[in-house]
Design goal:
By secondary structure, the protein is an alpha/beta fold. Helix content is about 35%, strand content about 20%. It has a seven-stranded mixed beta sheet with strand order 9-8-7-14-15-17-16, sandwiched between helices.
């Protein structure tokens, strides 16, 4: 079933630019601050809540979160990120409580809103609270985007996130990470760095795009199960394309702004897709090494870094900080996921612009959900 788009709901607005600059900006600024004493997050221990921790910490919002609430009774009376977790009903008598709904699933959003309305509790989407607060940065990103299609996609996806709706299918662009000719036509002597390589699917597509003529591929994947699968794929690709071990380098590391130790939590329910790293004390994960790209790519490397891709579950911003020296030296093409939390929709493009002020910036969306929104940058 095709979802109704924001543009179709407002047919009198033919220009996305007018729509975004006037309607959406006004919506942002209508309630850009929330006066609260108690700020729990609903859907406490869910996957999206985990993804948002990096963004909340980066924006200084984590300390304002007093607790978490969920309908899952197994999590009541427990701790999530050292904060209490309880049922929504237990909060209804707390004065000035304001609930932030944290899920990208429209069906769950509708159910949560209905429940909170019945309880008489104030609430909004976490996306709404963050994006309205940072309306100025959002509009700065919109203005610096390279093409009108990017502006259309950016405005529409942000509106969908504000309203808790899925985007139209006609917003979807195929060939994720490789949809721009600048990314597929880069010199064959360049190195491709894949952060969050999963099972090597992007590595294989890169090799196919280059007809097997590649200099070096460096893949980072901390999940041990995914890494084993990637090793099998890499061996097959070496045999099929007559590549040597020096052409493909696989590293079982997480990537961040500095080298450290951490834990990776596999996402078994999704075949390892979306596994996350954490530097906090976490049970049930695997201890891993976390590195900064600048510590791996030293000044002695012969090859030019031509393409850097990252899909690392909210660690993209930190990865960029840890790759600043490499990015400024090599000016690679960048394909950086920004969909893991609303903070990345403005903070990642602004950081890339700071590091590469002359780069073109574009946005493309690659799924029929609110996942797979990617920032592309190239000079």
């Amino acid at each position: 079933m095709k979802h109704t788009s924001f543009t179709k709901k407002n047919k009198e607005e033919q220009s996305y630019e007018k729509l975004f600059k006037k309607t959406t900006c006004r919506t942002f600024r209508k309630r850009h601050t929330i006066s609260i004493q108690y700020l729990p997050i609903y859907n406490g221990g869910g996957n999206t809540t985990l993804l948002y921790q990096e963004g909340l910490l980066r924006e200084g919002l984590y300390d304002k979160i007093i607790g978490y609430c969920t309908n899952n009774p197994t999590q009541w009376q427990s701790k999530i990120f050292e904060k209490d977790c309880s049922s929504p009903e237990s909060l209804k008598d707390i004065k000035d409580a304001f609930i932030l709904i944290c899920t990208p699933q429209p069906r769950y959003i509708r159910e949560m809103k209905e429940q909170l309305n019945l309880l008489g509790m104030q609430h909004c989407l976490l996306e709404e609270a963050i994006l309205k607060k940072h309306a100025g940065e959002v509009l700065d990103v919109y203005d610096m985007l390279y093409d009108q299609k990017s502006k259309d996609i950016y405005a529409n996806i942000l509106w969908c996130r504000l309203k808790g709706e899925y985007p139209d299918y006609d917003l979807i662009t195929p060939n994720q990470y490789f949809c721009w000719t600048d990314f597929t036509n880069a010199d064959t002597g360049h190195t491709f760095i894949d952060c969050g390589a999963y099972v090597g699917d992007s590595m294989e597509q890169y090799i196919w795009n280059k007809d097997g003529v590649v200099s070096k591929i460096i893949c980072f994947e901390p999940d041990p199960n995914n890494f084993r699968a990637m090793q099998h794929r890499a061996e097959r690709l070496r045999n099929e394309w007559n590549l040597s071990d020096k052409n493909i380098r696989l590293l079982p590391y997480g990537v961040s702004d500095q080298s450290s130790e951490g834990v990776v939590q596999g996402y078994a329910a999704n075949n390892g897709l979306g596994s996350k790293i954490s530097t906090e004390n976490t049970t049930g994960g695997t201890n891993i090494k976390i590195v900064a790209i600048d510590d791996i790519i030293d000044d002695t490397i012969d090859e030019h870094i031509g393409f850097l891709k990252a899909d690392i579950e909210s660690y993209e911003y930190k990865m960029l900080l840890g790759a600043e020296k490499t990015i400024k030296k090599h000016n690679p093409c960048l394909a950086i996921c920004i969909y893991h939390n609303a903070v990345d929709f403005y903070s990642v493009p602004l950081l890339v612009h700071q590091m590469m002020p002359y780069a073109k910036l574009a946005i493309r969306h690659h799924s029929n959900s609110l996942s797979e929104t990617v920032l592309y940058a190239w000079t």
